[in-house]
DNA sequence: GATGAATGAGCATTCATTCAT
DNA sequence: CATGAATGAATGCTCATTCAT
């Protein structure tokens, strides 16, 4: 029993990891399922035991990676003793962006496939009850010295700006390499946060 | 012969228009070249006379549509007597976004395929000499009562924020339908512009 | 244990019934063994414990259903006090056809898969010793006021004509709906019977 | 032009003939499209240029072969100076059956795949205007010394009986080899014809 | 230039069958 | 007896691309 379940998990993870590797190196369109199973060392039929098709595994992969990223940032924030919403959000953004800068394949993969709606559902509407990222964010807001209005709008605006600008600045180094663009981005983020403060 | 050239142009345009129609309705991946030529009423071989492959025609289509959009906005701005950089940029953004709101297939098509690098090349670095969009922008900046630093950074930040946020707000109505989100977006844009002013 | 044997029988019957249901609704070609076991609630391997493959279960099913049909007709004939071979055979044919008319999936299934040889073996040559259908038929013949020659030929001709004509008339209503075609069919059957009488 | 069309026809016919050969020798289910194209010496894609799928080519094949058979019988009848509807119909049946007896693969192929509805449409309802088999039959009926009622019913009954009985008698030699069964069959057919005569 | 028949590599998906537990 | 995870051969079908006319 335990042995079988263990084996199942092993195969599923082998497929998961292999798919991620191939998607990020060869691109999704150019990755055939036969590539995945071959590299993962399982039979073709086994793939269909665990995933519906290529897009099923892709979506699960994207969500998984995005979660990892934000949880890591959240954990790091908790460890660092940062105070004040502004600094805290900048800290999280910085953490996520730094992780992506050092992992451009992941940056590319996430950016191209993260149907924003999915992430937004998680981050902003907090629909996914077993996921506390949004809750952590709300907590940060409530603990700040200031009060804020239209919190969801604020979060949305920041995520869109940071996500889009960082993606392009990192990958294309235009209009500036990200390190140089960073101060501008964070200044804008701070302005947006402040504009949501209740006086 | 003028007649022959005309005919050539006609076929090319038929392919161009048909491709756009199919890409926006069926999606690019699901559109085969045979679909395009069939609907356009030309032979399969003819396609390869004018375009290298599906992605060639796609890219040309994206640039073409994006150009149309900005030129229309620029023309409209010239007609309206708007003064001050802030109001002028808001005017342009508003014009483009309104056009996209009324044409969601176009919004989708542009957003998914506009490799930002391409547009940025056009809009921001002005590389493309026969295209005056960037020049018009520079002119607006120079004519303003205030002076600005890091103009490219400013333009980049605005384009990323407005593009990304508008896209998601329009299509998914999250966190708010765009009409309701608009005031927040424009407030943020104005803040960004102001932050680039030389005191 | 009786309990174990019962359980065994239960599983086999579940497979049998489920296969019949799926064969008649989805067709044999479109029914996979996995469909059968899934619906029957048994494991895939269990199927191979009782049947060799899809065609094994199909054949057993056809014979089973055909037997049921004729036995029911024979029983009914015994209950009704019909006299004379002509009327008796018409009675049986009518009984079988009526049952099939009210169960078109069965009609379809039987007709498409009843390799006539199999039924003929049963009905005409009486090979299958534990099956008394043929014997009952011989008895009817012997009890009639008339004598008959080439009894097997007669039975064969009647079965072929009635089976084929009824099948098409019922399913396609061509050249007439069966109810209207019936008098013609039965007239022909009576002529065939009479033609085998010894003067 | 002529050359191209000629070539097209050649390929289509190669596929047609090869498919027939494989269907009759290996069976339809066991014949893969790759088998057909390989043996026909064309590329896989070419198959789909001319036929939708395996069942498309099968249906076209069945109709084609059935037509050939009846036309040949009709032509032969015209050449032989047979008089009287009874003898004429027997002549046609005999001609068709003889052809099938000498070509058992064809007998098998036709019998298993000729959706009777299709043939009946042709033979009995005469829908297919460019096919004169039914017309020829009507002509024979009208030229006979006797008058007949319910002609379609008569034709249908004969076709069903002869088709079904001959098929089984030829292939399985049960209850008798066809040559021995033939007199019985034809006697029945004559009885059926006579039963439709107007006195 | 224009055509469209032909190509054939490429790929997703299914499914009967096995066998370790 | 029963299970169901794993297999991988088999196959239908698509489609970009070429090239003789």
Topology at a glance:
The structure is a homotetramer of 199-residue chains.
Chain A: H1 2-26, H2 33-40, H3 44-50, H4 54-79, H5 85-101, H6 104-113, H7 116-125, H8 133-143, E1 147-148, H9 151-172, H10 178-195, E2 197-198
Antiparallel strand pairs in A: 1-2
Chain D binds a DNA duplex (21 and 21 nucleotides) through residues 1, 3-4, 7-8, 11, 32-34, 42-49, 53-54.
Short summary of the structure?
Chain A has helices at residues 2-26, 33-40, 44-50, 54-79, 85-101, 104-113, 116-125, 133-143, 151-172, 178-195, and strands spanning 147-148, 197-198.
Overview of this structure, please?
- The structure is a homotetramer of 199-residue chains.
- With 199 residues, the first copy, chain A, is mainly α.
- The first copy, chain A, has two domains: 1-51, Arc Repressor Mutant, subunit A, CATH 1.10.10; 61-195.
- In chain A, 77% of the residues lie in helices and 2% in strands.
- Chain A is built from ten helices and two strands, in the order ααααααααβααβ.
- Chain A has helices spanning 2-26, 33-40, 44-50, 54-79, 85-101, 104-113, 116-125, 133-143, 151-172, 178-195, and strands at 147-148, 197-198.
- A two-stranded antiparallel sheet of chain A has the order 1-2.
- Chain A is elongated, with a radius of gyration of 19 Å.
- In chain A, 31% of the residues are buried.
- Chain D binds a DNA duplex (21 and 21 nucleotides) through helix 1 and helix 3.
